[in-house]
């Protein structure tokens, strides 16, 4: 039975100003790509905050949640669903900033021309790949919208699997390992622009309605003045500045915005409706 989790903001009993800020990100792409993206952010934050900032890779989504709860990480780039899980696990994880695009994010459903799949209804009897079990854009929201459209993965797919990452899902579909899959729209666009997918072999056949997704999140007992400095470091980035542009391009955005706990209520409700939040 799903348990409703309140996302109401709790006041931390105490605050802690660390001598080093340990940051990580959900592993939604391959480790080399993640290191390429987040090491420059750690370097930027070190300069802005005046303390060492270290990027720490993790093995899976659940590890980021447990590490934040155990205070082994101070800040994590989460998807909306993982933030809800972290909030539930810690009781006080705080969302700080999202990319402007994350306020209206989408997942892409992809297939090969030879499968005959042109709509969600055509997925019945086919093989399918989600990303990670805990991925917002690679599992939660695709599953939620499938159910909303009368497709139950457990009953209607011949088989479904979890690739573990968005780029892996694209490769699974292109190679014929599965008939179709769902992945993050930003990763899909990046793969297309980098010509890492062959558009003659794999194509988008459906795009989800919008939903809120990724967010930089800190543990709830982090020093409040440091949290404000972190928020300011992101929101001050200006895309017209070449140095800032280079950094923002790594996360494929032109603007960061402050967000509140309440904005992730739809992700919580979707997780409950899809049977993924226990």
Keywords, separated by commas or semicolons:
five-stranded mixed sheet, 38% helix, six-stranded mixed sheet, single chain, alpha/beta, 10 helices
Textual characterization of the structure:
The radius of gyration is 19 Å and the shape is globular. It has ten helices and eleven strands. The protein has about 280 residues and is an alpha/beta fold. The protein starts with 20 loop residues before the first strand and ends in a 5-residue tail after the last helix. The protein has helices at about 30-50, 60-70, 80-90, 135-150, 155, 165-175, 185-195, 225-235, 240-250, 265-275; strands spanning about 20-25, 55, 75-80, 95-100, 105-110, 125-130, 160, 180-185, 205, 215-220, 255-260. A six-stranded mixed β-sheet has the order 2-1-3-10-4-11, sandwiched between helices.
Give the helix/strand class. Answer: alpha/beta
The share of residues in helices is: 25-40%
Q: How many β-strand runs?
A: 11
The general outline is globular
Overall pLDDT level: 93
Strand order of the largest sheet: 2-1-3-10-4-11
Beta percentage is 15-25%
Give a short summary of the structure.
The chain is of the alpha/beta class. It contains 10 helices and 11 strands. Strands 2-1-3-10-4-11 form a 6-stranded mixed sheet, with helices on both faces.
What layout of secondary structure does this protein have?
Blueprint: E1 21-25, H1 31-49, E2 53-55, H2 61-69, E3 75-78, H3 80-90, E4 94-99, E5 107-111, E6 127-130, H4 136-148, H5 153-156, E7 159-162, H6 166-175, E8 180-184, H7 185-193, E9 203-207, E10 215-218, H8 224-235, H9 242-250, E11 256-258, H10 265-273
Parallel strand pairs: 1-2, 1-3, 6-7, 6-8
Antiparallel strand pairs: 3-10, 4-10, 4-11, 5-8, 5-9
Helix pairs in contact: 2-3, 4-10
């Amino acid at each position: 039975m799903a348990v409703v989790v309140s996302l109401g903001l709790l006041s931390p009993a105490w605050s802690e100003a660390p001598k080093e800020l340990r940051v990580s990100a959900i592993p939604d792409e391959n480790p080399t790509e993640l290191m390429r993206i987040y090491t420059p952010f750690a370097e930027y934050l070190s300069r802005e905050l005046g303390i060492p900032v270290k990027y720490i890779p993790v093995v899976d989504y659940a590890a980021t949640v447990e590490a934040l709860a155990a205070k082994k990480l101070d800040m994590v780039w989460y998807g909306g669903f993982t933030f809800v899980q972290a909030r539930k696990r810690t009781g006080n994880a705080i969302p700080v900033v999202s990319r402007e695009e994350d306020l209206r994010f989408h997942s892409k459903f992809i297939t090969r021309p030879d499968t005959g799949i042109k709509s969600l209804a055509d997925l019945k009897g086919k093989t399918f790949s989600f990303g990670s079990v805990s991925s917002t854009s690679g599992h939660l929201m695709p599953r939620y919208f499938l159910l909303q459209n009368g497709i139950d993965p457990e009953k209607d797919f011949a088989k479904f699997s979890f690739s573990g990452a968005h780029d892996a899902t694209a490769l699974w579909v292109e190679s014929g390992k599965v008939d179709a899959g769902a992945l993050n729209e930003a990763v899909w666009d990046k793969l297309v622009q980098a010509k890492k997918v062959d558009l003659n072999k794999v194509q988008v056949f459906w795009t989800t309605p919008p939903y809120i997704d990724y967010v930089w999140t800190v543990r709830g007992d982090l020093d409040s003045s440091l949290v404000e400095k972190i928020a300011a470091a992101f929101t001050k980035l200006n895309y017209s500045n070449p140095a800032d542009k280079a950094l923002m391009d790594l996360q494929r955005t032109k603007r960061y915005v402050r967000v509140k706990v309440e904005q992730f209520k739809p992700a919580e409700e979707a997780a409950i409706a899809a049977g993924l939040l226990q």
